[in-house]
Amino acid sequence: MPEEELEDGVTKLVFDGEEYIFWNKAEIVLPFIYEYLKNYFPSQLILREFNHIDFVVLGENLPIEVQSTIILGRSNIGSSYFEQMIEKQIKQNVERYGHCWFFFDSEFLRYLKSRISRANRLDLGWLINYMHGELVKAFVINYCGEIKHLSIKNIEYIKKKVDYNELNNNEVKILSQVILGHGYSSKEIRSFYYNKKYLQNRAAFATWLRRKEQPEREKRLGYILFTISSDLRIIDDLFAFGEVDWNRVSTAASFLGILYYENETKLWSMEDLYDINKYFPSYNKNRAFWDELKHRKFLKLEFETIIRGAGN
């Protein structure tokens, strides 16, 4: 995937022989969006950067959110991060203001519609419901400033087929299996919590456990809790042959016993040390492929190539 930065905030990537030019900094398109809003609402005052919102059309009480394409290390597109960012922003705005407009990269939309990303679609049922209720309008814009209104049909086309509700419902089951697999007891975890309380530390429990000065066992529990609260979706994306940040997904999956790295040989293997793979919808959908890989050892690049090939 050759990468070329055409200018600060504009990046050219090639996926499967197809060239894409993404804007990965919102500053590239903000002037175009401002002009669009001025023409659409000629008699209204438009405020920039109010209350962590990109624009607000004051007379309409209308928040405008702009989300750039997220490019991760090694030229991967951060589809899961993108979804997490827009879901938080848009839901908050609808709750506060009753409606919201949303702008994102037209090249990212084209990428999501492409063959290479079909396993990496987004879980956008919540956004579709908002659009049906006329609470949200979505627009795409390219780095040159061309803006188009996005139909519900276009959003439905890129909607991921996996239901994350099932994964969310399995979160506690995964946590239980992993904690027991690492040999933690309720008494031991309670002692960690009381130590934190005794020290009158206000940090979140998982954050406090991960501090550098903590013993290795406390630190490991902190990373397990953090992984299960933050990274289950990206692991499911891996099982769906999605484009993922290997460093992040391999670290998360290792804490959960899904992947294993052998330091001496620098080889990776697919495992299921704590019997939790079954709780991931995309694993169940592609079980034959992943079970075939189980216990076999691969170099990192070889492993990535096999997984990417399965998604094409």
In words, what does this structure look like?
It is a single chain. With 312 residues, the protein is an alpha+beta fold. It folds into 2 domains: 3-161, no CATH class; 165-311, no CATH class. Helices cover 46% and strands 20% of the residues. It has 15 helices and 14 strands. The chain has helices at 30-40, 79-97, 106-113, 125-132, 152-158, 164-169, 171-181, 186-198, 205-209, 216-230, 232-239, 246-255, 281-285, 287-293, 300-311; strands at residues 3-7, 10-15, 18-23, 46-50, 53-57, 62-67, 71-72, 76-77, 100-105, 136-141, 147-150, 259-262, 267-270, 297-298. The strands form 4 sheets. A 6-stranded mixed β-sheet has the order 4-5-6-9-10-11, sandwiched between helices. Helix 7 (171-181) runs antiparallel to helix 10 (216-230) and helix 11 (232-239) packs across helix 12. The longest helix has 19 residues, at 79-97. The mean pLDDT is 85.
Name the structural class. Answer: alpha+beta
Biggest sheet, spatial arrangement of strands: 4-5-6-9-10-11
Number of helices: 15
Number of domains: 2
- Cα(first) to Cα(last) distance is 15 Å
Low-confidence runs? none
- Total number of strands: 14
Calculate the mean pLDDT score and round it.
85
Q: Estimate what percentage of residues fall within beta strands.
A: 15-25%
Order of helices and strands: EEEHEEEEEHEHHEEHHHHHHHHEEHHEH
C-alpha geometry: globular
Rounded to the nearest angstrom, the radius of gyration is 22 Å
| Helical proportion, percent range | 40-55%
Largest sheet properties: 6 strands, mixed
